[in-house]
Amino acid sequence: xxxxxxxxLDDRLVKATGELGFVNxxxxxxxxxxxxxxxxxxxxxxxxxxxxxxxAFGLPLLNLIDVQARHPQALVVCPTRELCLQIVKxxxxxxxxxxxxxxxxxYGGTSIGLQIRDLKRGVQIVVATPGRLIDLIERKAINxxxxxxxxxxxxxxxLNMGFQDDIEFILKNTxxxxxxxxxxxxxxxxxxxxxxxxxxEPVEVxxxxxxx
Length: 212
Ligand code: ADP
Ligand code: MG
Prior knowledge:
Helices cover 42% and strands 15% of the residues. The protein has helices spanning 11-19, 27-37, 53-64, 81-94, 112-121, 130-138, 155-160, 164-172, 189-198, and strands at residues 42-46, 74-77, 103-106, 125-128, 149-152, 179-184, 203-206. Strands 3-4-2-5-6-1-7 form a seven-stranded parallel beta sheet, sandwiched between helices. Strand 3, helix 5 and strand 4 (125-128) form a beta-alpha-beta unit. Helix 2 (27-37) packs parallel to helix 3 (53-64) and helix 6 packs across helix 8 (164-172). The longest helix is centred in the middle third of the chain and has 14 residues, at 81-94. The structure holds adenosine-5'-diphosphate and magnesium ion.
């Protein structure tokens, strides 16, 4: 069986996964992590719920960001506040042995002022739901100029919830985006449409059975 060391991750990330009780990578992690670390620009990862997709993108993001620079470099977009908080929590655990990494959550139904304050302090990774993120973009309270990585997590859920236009708006407002990673449990035609429009020859990895 493969280990996290063998996937090419930074030792500090390997140590943190070990402490979380992750012994072996899941199938989607084993396939996605080396590809993403290897500089693949556009990526589609398809795997069912509960297969460890958060670490499949979270660990490579932590490995790739520039910790010396305190501006948003990676943007993770997900459908709900709960998921947003869960992703931030997991990334916080993964980055335990890395200093200088800052992550923040951006979601609706709570004070925007506090989120603006957190963003002003300087973060490299922003995890956001579409509505609040667009609010921040329109208020010019978030700087997306230097976002290189955009992750669309639970892309099928976001499209089901009617976020297609919002996602396209976000993708159009990340001028330096050179990597777009899409994760989903299913592959409906709407996702194909988004990927055709905004991704270039994505590497597609599928684990198990995936419905269209
Ligand atoms: P998904 O996004 O695919 O639904 P998650 O990323 O939320 O899945 O992971 C589901 C659960 O599995 C989480 O509790 C996570 O901490 C755990 N997990 C992820 N990867 C591993 C691993 N390699 N070994 C053990 N547990 C893991
Ligand atoms: Mg998930």
